[in-house]
Amino acid sequence: MARILVLEDDQLFNETLEDFLEEEGYVIECALDPYSALELSYKHVFDLYLFDVNLPYENGFDLLEKLRQNDDMTPTIFLTSRDDKDSLTRGFSTGADDYMKKPIDLDELLLRIQAVLRRQIRKERVGIGQYSLDTTAKILYFGDEALEVTQKAIELLVLLVQANGEVVSSEEIKNRLWAAGQNASNGSLRVYITQLKKYFPENISNVRGVGYRWVID
Length: 217
Description:
Number of strands: 12
Number of domains: 2
Strand content: 15-25%
Largest sheet: 5 strands, parallel
Radius of gyration: 18 Å
CATH topology of the largest domain: Rossmann fold
Strand order of the largest sheet: 2-1-3-4-5
CATH superfamily of the largest domain: Response regulator
């Protein structure tokens, strides 16, 4: 199921969104300020961002602009009380996929989330040699056959491929794939590397003492 980052500084509404979306089956991470949201974006691969606009320290537009400049193209929906045309224009010009005005109808929000994720599934199924990877649903395919690969292994595959041949350190991988407090041992990481090497034996290189890199054909 898709992983969503919720950034909303109203704690009650933040918790309401978390409860509602978790009941719908999504994996939710929450932040009350842009700095915390940015840190979470480094630790996990998200399928969707839900961002408030009026926030402490900097607004949601500035945060998304920063993420886009760092090549983070995660689909984003803004949730905001702003209803002026300039804000609407800025929201879309920074790279938002949708924009909802508060008060938010949760059923409508769910429909919009589903629509954005469907579009992303069509856009994000990318070819890797004889395989194709749905980076939103976290599914690896051989032809039309879905392969038995765990979600963390898929997140690791996305991370390595997106590094474009650069070495990704073991520490960075663990920070991105595991939440704070979770057991992120080197042994666990090797399990996921072994899963991927079953399908990509020539593409994953172990850089001893540093990490791993994707060998581009």
